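User: Could you write out the 3D structure of this protein bound to adenosine-5'-tetraphosphate? I've included everything you need below.
Assistant: Certainly. Input first, then the structure.
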Amino acid sequence: MTDFPQRVFSGVQPTGNLHLGNYLGAITKFVDLQKTHECLFCVVDLHAITVPQDPVALKSSIREVTAAFIASGIDPVKHIVFNQSQVSVHAELAWVLNCVARIGWMNRMTQFKEKAGKDREAASIGLYAYPVLMAADILAYRATHVPVGEDQKQHLELARDIAQKFNTDFAASIAANGLGEVFFPQPEPLIQGPATRVMSLRDGSKKMSKSDPSDNSRINLADDADAIASKIRKAKTDPEPLPSELAGLAGRPEADNLVGIFAALKGETKQQVLATYGNANFSTFKGALVDLAVASLGPIGAEMQRLVADPAHIDAILCDGAERARAIAQPTLDHVKDILGFVRQTSL
Ligand code: AQP
């Protein structure tokens, strides 16, 4: 069996209003993983255009997500930070994988159904094919680990199915080209911790999301202390005090969500939070959460603002990252072309 070097890949869409869910579900994990793994963190702008985007807003959002990565503690020198559209391998490999993925598999993707809404016929083909592009993002680097929030679990499973089908369909050609027994690894999703699915502050049954029309439903990384405090104080709760045991959070989605957010920001388990705040009323708990959220997120928001004020610096980081990403992805695509039987220009 082929042994793949451990490599982390993950992406965030530059679709505006980067929020606490993106931060706790993904970015904080990126920061931890860079201590132990070789990592690539991508601003997935090709994914962003699967729904309508304003070009001016898109450009500033690409820089804002890059700034958020760096302000949160990602090192773009030791690791690779880049935007997807600068590395054309993603789009080229996605086409190949479109021809591997099956329509039956795609029809099961729940995120497409949610995002396309009732008028599916009017959705872009890009939105439908989004999970295949995501598979290409990961497999272009033959990444072994993918830190994501819970909502991306199904897409990761699809990426694994695509990798496996490619390996099986082309097993003979992979071997004939001297590329081992399997060409693509099975990427492992990394979905752990108390905040893998942060919910809306206004409705504990809905995911915190950039596209929620209510700004009070989410804490944006760019929010200042007053906005953070006001949103937490207005967050929906129930009339009961907090339970002292985890079981007491069952059927109380808003309480569960706030406890999960507190736990993730503090680096504790939900049980530890309840050991401190069990039987406290929400006004006491929300006060503590405001202090914690402002102390954790305030410096990140301020650093993001400082970084986005210098777009040339951010663009230089992205350009350097793209060059280093290309150096890994291009040989993968070249091998894929050989495996498929394409004739390609080889160096003389
Ligand atoms: N609410 C969430 N809780 C935990 N993790 C989350 N993520 C997103 N929302 C939550 C994780 O953040 C990473 C980047 O997400 P994305 O921006 O690429 O796409 P998304 O999941 O579509 O984010 P949104 O906010 O829900 O955007 P819209 O509203 O445009 O659909 C991913 O790892 C994701 O799991």
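Strands lie at 7-12, 38-43, 80-83, 145-147, 188-190.
User: Perfect, thank you.
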